[in-house]
Amino acid sequence: MNTPHDSSLGREVAYPTRYDPTLLFPIPRAGARAELGLAPGSALPFTGHDRWHAYELGWLDGRGRPQAATATVLVPADSPCLVESKSFKLYLNSLNAARFDHADALRACIAGDLSRAAGAGVEVRFGLPPMAAGQEGTSIDAEDVDIDHYGPPQADVLRADTGDVVEEYLRSGMLKSNCPVTGQPDWGSVHLRYRGPRIDRGSLLRYIAGYREHAGFHEQCVEQIFLDVLARCRPQWLSVEARYTRRGGLDINPWRATPGQPAPAPARDLRQ
């Protein structure tokens, strides 16, 4: 029978009982970037970082008393590897029974372990960015267009008016892709800032809908969006950030931009 007893609900799952940095699973970025036309070893056409928010960080102090906090983690986009999200969560769980005399010792431990996994310096700080104040940018989600394609993403639907140069901030809450490991849906929003030929908003919404049945890691999806918009719409500068909703106490916010662009002020969406 199809009952809760027959499902995975309530069944025991593997849970780390001691600190174990080997749980972190790095994935080289080079393979996915090669599929996007970025040759290994060549200069990246973007700068950026992957900003993680950790909502469930726990450990024991030097006297064995339970502690809890939140944290923000910044992984540079030029690191050789990304860190797979489920392994990141398992790693954080492995800290629950570990003792640290001071909170900063915990922070340094996490930063060191993540830096070794990513192959570059990773910044860790306690606390989370504030929630976004009001409506950021201009939403494209109500554009009057028909959509009948949901994957793979099609860059050729993007349009821009070369006779009308603007600087604007466009936003869509309709980003959805699928985890290439589990097949489960990943939900998020796209925040696109640029200066250049005016991007047709309906075409941008159709393009974003093309990720709906696409399998890709969060970081890879943002890099593809950046490269496709850059190639098809020819902006003078471009900044693309995605804010994905939380899974297992973690959310990720990859950001990619043309070199020289400042990082957007860190903020969280209401869905985060």
In short:
With 272 residues, the chain is of the alpha+beta class.
Task: Name some characteristics of this structure.
single chain, 272 residues, alpha+beta, 8-stranded mixed beta sheet, two-stranded antiparallel ribbon, 21% helix, 32% strand, elongated, disordered N terminus
Task: Explain what you see.
The chain is α+β, with helices and mostly antiparallel strands and 272 residues long. It contains five helices and ten strands. It has an eight-stranded mixed beta sheet with strand order 5-3-2-10-9-8-7-6. It has a two-stranded antiparallel ribbon with strand order 1-4. The chain is elongated and about 65 Å long. The two termini are 36 Å apart. The model is unreliable at 1-10 (pLDDT under 50).
